[in-house]
Amino acid sequence: MTVTFKSILIVSTVLISVASADFSSFITPVTMSRYNFKREKVDTEFNLDDKDYKQSLVVLSFPGLLLSIFLMLLGVIALFLRNCITCGRRNKSEFEEDETPGADYDTGSIISEYQPSKDGPTSILLKIVKFFVFLIIVTTVVGAILGLASNAKAGKDLDNFFKNMNIMANNARKTSNNLVHAFAGKTDITKTILSSLLPLTTEMNNMTQTTHRVLVEETNLNHLRESITIMGYIIAIITCAGGIFGVANGKSWSFMFLSYLSLLTISIILLAMAMHIPLSAASSDFCNSLDQYVDNDVKPSWMKKWINCETDVSISDAVEFSQGEIDKLLKMINLFSSAYTNKTYTTSNLLTLKLDELRAVIPIDQVSLFDSKFDAKTIPVILSVPRLQNMAKCQFVKDYFNYTRNNYCGEVIENVNRMVISEILIAVIWIPGFIFAVIYSKDKRIINNENNNNSNNNSNNNNNNDDDSQAHRSS
Ligand SMILES: *[C@@H]1O[C@H](CO)[C@@H](O)[C@H](O)[C@H]1NC(C)=O
Ligand SMILES: *[C@@H]1O[C@H](CO)[C@@H](O)[C@H](O)[C@H]1NC(C)=O
Ligand SMILES: *[C@@H]1O[C@H](CO)[C@@H](O)[C@H](O)[C@H]1NC(C)=O
């Protein structure tokens, strides 16, 4: 009994230490060669507008996809053959019995069926089989936990990346719109400023729209990816339960059921892997392009479509002029406030100013002048001056990409790679699991004939008490 517990500990420890390894260096889909459909080599520069690049990502999903289909076919053939062997046997000897494969007479446990021979090899084989089932289950559970945790993190990071980009663009849009609002009809040369600012405000509006569209698309794709991934892991866990049930129950139909389940697990898990390899490669390419932009100022081609960061002289001029005008607004506020409330303001304490209170203490004949210059948006506009220059130079985009690269890139890639590892682990371990299930769903008949009711009292055996019962019987 303690053997099982000890081996659980050992296997879990091994798997957990595997799980905590650094996967971004262990498996690196990004280093895989990229080919388009014509088998020409493709550059790894991230660009979803490039047909060849998109094809190369699709090609990266082929190993998982083809393996999934291939194993599915192979599995179906194996199941078919298994049925054929059974029907061949049916003709020979067991016609009646085989009509009702799950019937009640069928109470022998798979494990006990091997025991009556009482030979060394059988009991060793039995132990190996049991250990193997146990290994599959522990591996699957650890793999699924690892995969689900990584999936949650990667999914959140991917969503947040695009969410933050949309928020960033939206803030910039608000800043530029506030600026326009603050100038509208308030200075002599407003028309000139507004027309010069127009490219900037249009750009910020466009950026908000584009990032929003990208966010919606990404969220949908990510949800689809998450659904398939989670479904794969859940089915893998269900298959484990099916495995435990099969060993405990020992009837051929439960192994038949297990073989279907394990085939499903292998296919869906490999399908999820087929998605995650290109995702990992694309994330890595994307992050490389962020590096190039932040460190070397090389603008990636995808950026032109999302965010137009061409520096425009007329925008810079307009922003410079706006800054001068905004400085004038602050001076004017100080004229009023120092005269009537004995206070002066800078950008550091401007938030403490209450325009209503100031308006209340100024002489009545100056109120209309005051109203023409200031309103609720004046203070935010004055405070946004540092961001204006930032916006004109598109520095805020660079800062955002720098932040993203530092905080998301490594984590997303590592978590996606972890999922790939866990998927390979689960798919690989269930291939012999499937074979095992197919063999036992058939094998049962052969043994059942020889020792029909010999082992009825062992039908509820499980891994723990089996050793005991075996000892009991042989004595
Ligand atoms: C913004 O989008 C409009 C149409 O959606 C387009 O005509 C315009 O050129 C874009 N402006 C900038 C600065 O990207
Ligand atoms: C206002 O300023 C004058 C002269 O600078 C000073 O004498 C006076 O104490 C100030 N009043 C308040 C309430 O701070
Ligand atoms: C990127 O961010 C890091 C950490 O915040 C900072 O040290 C570095 O100077 C930034 N690089 C650029 C080009 O802004």
From TrEMBL:
Gene Ontology annotations for the cellular component aspect, listed alphabetically: chloride channel complex; plasma membrane
Localisation per UniProt entry: Cell membrane
One Pfam family per UniProt: Tweety
Signal peptide span: 1-21
Highest taxon in the source lineage: Eukaryota
Membrane topology: Multi-pass membrane protein
Keyword ATP-binding tagged: no
Region Disordered, annotated ranges: 451-475
Membrane-spanning segments: 57-81, 128-149, 230-248, 255-279, 419-440
InterPro entries for the chain: DDB_G0292058-like, Tweety
Keywords assigned by UniProt, alphabetized: Cell membrane, Chloride, Chloride channel, Glycoprotein, Ion channel, Ion transport, Membrane, Signal, Transmembrane, Transmembrane helix, Transport
Extent of Low complexity compositional bias: 451-464
A GO MF label: chloride channel activity
Family membership noted in the UniProt record: Belongs to the tweety family.
Protein name (database record): Uncharacterized protein
Organism of this sequence: Dictyostelium firmibasis
Lineage summary: Eukaryota, Amoebozoa, Evosea, Eumycetozoa, Dictyostelia
